[in-house]
Fold:
Amino acid sequence: MATSKTSNKQTLSAEDWADAALAAMADGGLEAVAVEPLARRLGVTKGSFYWHFANRDAVVRAAIELWAQRETDDIIEIARKVTAPRRRIQTIFKLANGSEREGRLYLAIAAASRDPMIGHVIEKVSRRRLEYLKACYTELGLADRDARKWATFAYSTFLGTLQLRRDDAAALSSDGFFTEYVRHLIEMLIPKNIGDQPPGEPGDVQPEERAA
Amino acid sequence: MATSKTSNKQTLSAEDWADAALAAMADGGLEAVAVEPLARRLGVTKGSFYWHFANRDAVVRAAIELWAQRETDDIIEIARKVTAPRRRIQTIFKLANGSEREGRLYLAIAAASRDPMIGHVIEKVSRRRLEYLKACYTELGLADRDARKWATFAYSTFLGTLQLRRDDAAALSSDGFFTEYVRHLIEMLIPKNIGDQPPGEPGDVQPEERAA
DNA sequence: ATCAGTCCATACGAAAGCGTATGGATAGTA
DNA sequence: TACTATCCATACGCTTTCGTATGGACTGAT
Structure:
């Protein structure tokens, strides 16, 4: 997170506005990205906004492209470190279920995919994630079509868990159920009896508790 | 579907307005439920609306409660016919991935769950679905906590598949991949080596192709 | 025929949002 | 000091939507 919230510069940049737009989307959806409310939140007026952007669509575009770029960097940087494919997939699952904010942000952006511009970005992000997952499964020893099936399966489960956490938080949060559930996912979403490593190898990262 | 769209009655009912609101939500999200556009769509003016409802919130409430009630009736009525638990779960999965409109509707409503009123309904629906699924898994021979895990797993995958179909339709639609994928889901989301019936029993319903 | 109830049309005011126009303030530069 | 570029404030008009007020049309009952 390279974001400096409420930075104390004396002048705003376009990225500051885009960050504010992302924050507004995360807890208010796309329609919460309105020029004057954003300006109030940043302590300025519309005059600043229309200096940096031509119109509202421009900041929406900038925001989601910023989001798409960041989530790419994060995934790549984190997952690349883990070389063993089976453990890499496990790591991805655990991390993917980590940040509450990122989940809400994805759902908010995806909910606005009627807008062709947003739909295109969401589609690009989904494709990239699926491709990456598929490559992991291929590396695990699966044939092309099987890798696609497993990747789609895993990614769908991830998306659904995201949604369920928002729609019925109690379904996952009670007791230590979430941890147990993630363990179950990892066990079920990785095919057995193929690949290079047995389950439960050393160096396993324990699933951290859910973010507040 | 007991809905008569563009009915030729000479006078409108509150449910007609609620239906129109659901239609608007299905392809436009919650903010598409606006009084005057709805009135234009129904061929009347606001005067009619404010005769049937006190304000905009009232029709939103009526619409999603209508939706919640209908989806309950549908699920119950369909799944109750299948007595064998394993086959019932299979049936649920196949049906759940059937209607495109229902999926978009769920996502549209869930995306508006910031509204406490909507959030409450979504939570109620989620809980009910999870309870039902859990009961199916229990009937299959799973212990309580395992049944909950499997039900959560299956429901998350269902929700995620819904979302993926919207966010990246090509990921599921190419070739006969969707059919193959659903078969894979059914195989993976039902535990083996327990329960009353082996997989592939006679009377299996073939997954119908995706709705247009 | 009148009267009450039902359903809708029309006109109005208020609020929120978008975008434009224009001027002010500040910092750097010649 | 004067000039310019950068960044923001303010004021305005336009549109959309909400909600109200009021009246008209049509129906059934007495």
